[in-house]
Fold:
Amino acid sequence: MNPEQFDGLIFDLDGTLVDTMPLHLASWELASREFGFVYDADWLYALGGVPSRKIVDIINREQGISLDGERVVQVKNDHYQTLLPQARPFPAMLALLEQHRGRPMAIGTGSSRVNAERVLANTGLKAFFPVVITADDVEQHKPGPETYLRAADGLGISPERCLVFEDTPIGRQAATAAGMACVMVVEGQPELG
Structure:
C-alpha cells in the first residue's frame, strides 16, 4: 500500500511509532505484583489501543476479582511515567515520517492525553502531528472507529482518503470500522509491501 495514494496519514502511537509497549507491559507487571492480579504479557499486548481503565474492567471480569480501577490505573501510570524517558521511535517509522514531512498527519491513540503528549515531546515527534486524538477525546475507544474518525475530521480529510498505521488487531479493526485503509506495523516495520 502506497502512502502517496492517500491525502492523510494517521498513526497509532504505542507500539506503532514508538517502542513503548515494553514500557507499558513492564508497568502492568509491576502493578500486577502490587494488586495481585494475573499478569499475561501476550494478552495485554493484544489489548494495545484499549485505555488502561477499560483493561482493568476486563481483568476484573475475566479474573473474577474487583480491583479499584482508578487506583490500579494510577499505579500503572506512575510506573509508566518513571520508565517513559526510555521510549524511542522505531527507526523505520521515523524514516517514514521524515519522508512524508509536511503532509497532513495525525495521531490516533488509546493513551491518555498526558501520556501521549509526553511521549511525543520526549521523542521529538510532536512537530509532525498538528492533530492528536487520545483516549480522553473520545467516548467509544478502539476497536470502535471514533478515534480515527476524529483524527480524519481534525485533518479535514474524508475517512476513505486516510491511511492508518497500526500494530494491533484491535487498532486495525478500528481503522476498518472508520472506513480507512490500514498498514500493519510489526516490530517497528510497516508492512507496505
